[in-house]
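General statements about sequence and structure are easier to judge against a single worked case. For one protein, we set the task of working out the structure tokens from the amino acid sequence alone. This step matters because it turns folding into a mapping between discrete strings. The amino acid sequence and the backbone structure tokens for this protein are reproduced below.
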Amino acid sequence: GCQKYTNKTCEECLKNVTCLWCSSSKKCVEYPVRNILPPSSVCQLSSARWGVCWVNFEALIIAMSVVGGIILLTIFICCCFCCRKKKNKKVDKEDEKASREREQRRVRQEERRAEMKTRHDEIRKKYGLFKEENPYAKFENN
């Protein structure tokens, strides 16, 4: 397949996706699919072209690594942001629940305090210990 494009142009060689163009030797060879990267015995990475003629294999690997790194970093940052947001929502919910419970306890305590005051006032009235509104009122001599 690919050897027939040797000593022709890179564009003609790379029309077939299974071919690899070596610009230093102007050879068109089958891409060694068993290896992830073509071995230097086939072609140096800086001279190897695959897919497009204007990018060598070295630059392609570097570009793909950078893009992959950016994607992974973006995913990591998004996960951290989402987890932090979820945690803050949970903390806000817990704070809201605690303040609601605190308010309910305060209301119950006020109700109990009012009940106790009423009960104590009734006991004072029963035994004549109820305090007058103005204990310093003058006695009138009748």
About this structure: The longest strand covers residues 52-56. Residues 57-126 form the longest helix (70 residues). The helical segments are 10-14, 57-126.
